[in-house]
C-alpha cells in the first residue's frame, strides 16, 4: 500500500516537473507567478488602430512618463436627452424650484406650474429654451432656466476579452476605465492587466486605440482615463498563462488531488 502511494506521488511530481519545464520555456515563472511584461510606449496614448503590431521596434521601445497622459472626456454639447436620463433643473426666477428629475419612458419630465414637458431628443441648451418658453407663457416674463444632465443612459460601452462578465453596458454618468472594468466583474483568471486596450472613434470618424496598464493606474503612476459612449474596452489574455492553463499536463494535474494519496 505504501509503495502504491509513493508511485502515485512520483507520477504527480513528474507531471508537475514537465509542466514547469514547458512554462519556463515560454517565459512563465512558477515562482513569481507573474508574466514577464515589457514596457509599451503606447500606454495611455491614442493611436490609429493600424499601429505597428506586437514585436515591432515601436512596441519594444521603453515607455516614457510623457506618454502616460490620458485625454479628458466630457459630455458633448450635442448630446440629446433620452429616456431614463437624470436631469438637474433650476429656475432662477422662482423660489425653491430646483428639481432632480428622471426622464420617463415617454421622454417627459414633470415640473411645478407647467406639469409634464417632453424633453427627449433635445440638447441641454434646447431643453433650457423649451422650458423657459413654457414658463414664459403664463407665469414669468424672463425666466432663466438651467438644465444639467446628471446621468445619461442612452449611450453604451462594450467590455470584452478576459473579464468576468463581458457585454454591453449602459453609460450612466461619467465613469473611468477602472469603474468600467468593475462593471464587468473585474479581470478573468488569465487576464493581462498591463494590456487593456481602449478603442474609440474620434471626431473625424477614425478608429483609434490606446493601451493602458491597470496596475500603473491603481498605483497612481498613470491617470485613470474617462470613458465615453461607444467605447470598446478589450482586456487581452496573457499568452503564458493561457498556454499553461491549456496544457495537457495542467489538465492532468487539475484532475489529480496530490493529497489524496496520503489518506
Describe this structure in words.
The chain is an alpha+beta fold and 263 residues long. It folds into three domains: 2-27 and 245-262; 47-73 and 154-237, Outer membrane lipoprotein wza domain like (Outer membrane lipoprotein wza fold like, Roll), CATH 3.10.560; 86-151, wza like domain (wza like fold), CATH 3.30.1950. It has seven helices and 13 strands. The chain has a six-stranded mixed sheet. Strand 4 and strand 5 form a beta hairpin. Helix 1 runs antiparallel to helix 7. It is elongated and about 75 Å long. Mean pLDDT is 74; it is low at 22-39 and 51-74.
Could you give a short description of this structure?
With 263 residues, the chain is of the alpha+beta class. It is built from 7 helices and 13 strands.
Global morphology: elongated
CATH topology of the largest domain: Outer membrane lipoprotein wza fold like
Number of helices: 7
What's the domain count? 3
Instruction: Please give the CATH architecture of the largest domain.
Output: Roll
- The unreliable regions are 22-39, 51-74
Tell me the span between the first and last alpha carbons: 11 Å
Largest sheet at a glance? 6 strands, mixed
CATH superfamily assignment of the largest domain?
A: Outer membrane lipoprotein wza domain like
Q: Assign the structural class, choosing from mainly alpha, mainly beta, alpha/beta, alpha+beta, or little secondary structure.
A: alpha+beta
Strand content: 15-25%
Strand order of the largest sheet: 1-11-10-13-7-8
Task: Please give the number of β-strands.
Answer: 13
SSE run: HEHEEEEHEEEEHEEHEEHH
On the 0 to 100 scale, the average pLDDT is 74
Amino acid at each position: 500500500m505504501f509503495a502504491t502511494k509513493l508511485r502515485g506521488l512520483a507520477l504527480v511530481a513528474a507531471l508537475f516537473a514537465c509542466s514547469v519545464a514547458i512554462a519556463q520555456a515560454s517565459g512563465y515563472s512558477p515562482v513569481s507567478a507573474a508574466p514577464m511584461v515589457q514596457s509599451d510606449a503606447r500606454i495611455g496614448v491614442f493611436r490609429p488602430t493600424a499601429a505597428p503590431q506586437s514585436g515591432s521596434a515601436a512596441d519594444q521601445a521603453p515607455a516614457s512618463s510623457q506618454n502616460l497622459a490620458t485625454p479628458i472626456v466630457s459630455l458633448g454639447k450635442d448630446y440629446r436627452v433620452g429616456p431614463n436620463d437624470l436631469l438637474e433643473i433650476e429656475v432662477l426666477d422662482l423660489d425653491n424650484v430646483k428639481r432632480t428629475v428622471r426622464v420617463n419612458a415617454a421622454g417627459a419630465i414633470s415640473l411645478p406650474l407647467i406639469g409634464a414637458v417632453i424633453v427627449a431628443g433635445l440638447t441641454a441648451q434646447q431643453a433650457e429654451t423649451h422650458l423657459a418658453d413654457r414658463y414664459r407663457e403664463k407665469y414669468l416674463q424672463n425666466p432663466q432656466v438651467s438644465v444639467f444632465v446628471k446621468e445619461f443612459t442612452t449611450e453604451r460601452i462594450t467590455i470584452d476579452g478576459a473579464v468576468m462578465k463581458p457585454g454591453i453596458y449602459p453609460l450612466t454618468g461619467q465613469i473611468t476605465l477602472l469603474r468600467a472594468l468593475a462593471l464587468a466583474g473585474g479581470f478573468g483568471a488569465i487576464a493581462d492587466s498591463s494590456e487593456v486596450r481602449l478603442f474609440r472613434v474620434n471626431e473625424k470618424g477614425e478608429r483609434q486605440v490606446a493601451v493602458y496598464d491597470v496596475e500603473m493606474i491603481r498605483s497612481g503612476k498613470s491617470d485613470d482615463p474617462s470613458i465615453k459612449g461607444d467605447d470598446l474596452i478589450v482586456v487581452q489574455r496573457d499568452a503564458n498563462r493561457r498556454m499553461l492553463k491549456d496544457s495537457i499536463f495542467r489538465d492532468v494535474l487539475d484532475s489529480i488531488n496530490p493529497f489524496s494519496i496520503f489518506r
